[in-house]
């Protein structure tokens, strides 16, 4: 039997895919600076929203269980296909796990080969905050400086950093049912230079706030904001309600607000507007960003971003990271794809490796 030269069994360049680990994602963000990274990411998301009709779009594929949900979020344009795997398990924190974890893949449409594999637990937190603040640029009251943060979990600080970078928010009013969460958020945000006020109730948190962010995790119909808590002229950034049966706002608030959404077909299933009739009018954000319809029209208007997260935002994040690691920094080359000398001889490659 002819001896096989070990060098002949080494993977070729086509076998390798750049992989961004959690460690490398943190290094990548620090290399650019958190706020600069968020600003760049928001620019990518905005650019993709402005070409919204070019994308394949579908509501995410969700598998619900008693304890949470596991979702796949796919989309594609003419050049790339991307998807994210993400879970949401509110009970996880009590057991020492993250509530949300994720990873994602970006591929070439031309040949189907993946061109990036990356962690997306951190990246999802960053893209969620970047999207919220990007929307805030269009909908928040002019000159807004004060934001209420109701729900001080893992997303809290990312939201604050993004709203400062893109919208000029300087002062934060924090509330959480768990004082330990507020302890954590207050410590982290003061270290970042924010003026932070701890509040004893949601009612106290919204006093004087021009932007109200709700970000709670419980998978249930909840009333985090009641109608009497919301005055004229505010912008509500509702990011906690993101699956069927999970809401944060009283229905009456929705009826008083101009509602802006990512993708109506998904938001009507998962967002705050699942409480309303199927034909209740909403405005799609891509049309606002393209200048086709108005965002905030006057100082008294209540604007509501009914945020559930959509795959195009993840696609933007994947392309953004792919460009940042194109020089080979902040990634590893993962031997992920079989690459036999003869594309038809996959079995031969296997047997020669024995």
TrEMBL record:
Pfam families referenced in this protein's UniProt entry, alphabetically: OCD_Mu_crystall (PF02423)
Domain of life: Bacteria
NCBIfam families registered for this protein in UniProt: PRK07589.1
Name of the protein: Ornithine cyclodeaminase
Annotated organism of origin: Alloyangia pacifica
């Amino acid at each position: 039997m002819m001896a096989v030269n070990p060098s002949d069994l080494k993977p070729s360049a086509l076998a390798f895919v750049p992989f961004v680990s959690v460690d490398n994602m943190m290094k990548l963000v620090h290399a650019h600076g958190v706020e600069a990274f968020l600003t760049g990411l928001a620019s990518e998301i905005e650019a993709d929203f402005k070409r919204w009709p070019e994308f394949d779009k579908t509501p995410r594929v969700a598998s619900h269980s008693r304890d949470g949900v596991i979702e796949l979020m796919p989309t594609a344009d003419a050049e790339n296909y991307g998807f994210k795997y993400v879970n949401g398990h509110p009970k996880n924190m009590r057991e020492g796990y993250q509530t949300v974890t994720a990873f994602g893949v970006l591929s070439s449409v031309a040949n189907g080969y993946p061109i990036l594999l990356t962690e997306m637990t951190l990246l999802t937190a960053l893209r969620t905050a970047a999207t919220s603040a990007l929307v805030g640029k269009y909908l928040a009251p002019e000159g807004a400086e004060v934001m209420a943060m109701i729900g001080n979990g893992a997303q809290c600080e990312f939201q604050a950093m993004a709203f400062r970078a893109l919208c000029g928010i300087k002062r934060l009013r924090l509330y959480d049912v768990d004082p330990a969460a507020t302890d954590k958020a207050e410590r982290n945000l003061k270290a970042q230079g924010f003026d932070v006020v701890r509040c004893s109730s949601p009612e106290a948190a919204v006093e004087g706030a021009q932007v109200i962010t709700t970000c709670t995790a419980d998978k249930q119909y909840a009333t985090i904001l009641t109608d009497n808590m919301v005055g004229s002229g505010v912008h509500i950034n509702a990011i906690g309600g993101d699956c069927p049966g999970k809401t944060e706002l009283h229905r009456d608030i929705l009826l008083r607000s101009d509602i802006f959404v990512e993708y109506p077909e998904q938001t009507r299933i998962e967002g705050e507007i699942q409480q309303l009739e199927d034909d209740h009018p909403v405005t799609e954000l891509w049309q606002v960003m393209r200048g086709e319809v108005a965002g905030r029209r006057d100082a008294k208007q209540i604007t509501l971003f009914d945020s559930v997260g959509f795959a195009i935002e993840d696609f933007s994040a994947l392309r953004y990271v792919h460009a940042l690691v194109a020089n080979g920094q902040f990634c590893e080359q993962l031997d992920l794809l079989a690459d036999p000398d003869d594309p038809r001889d996959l079995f031969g490659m296997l047997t020669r490796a024995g």
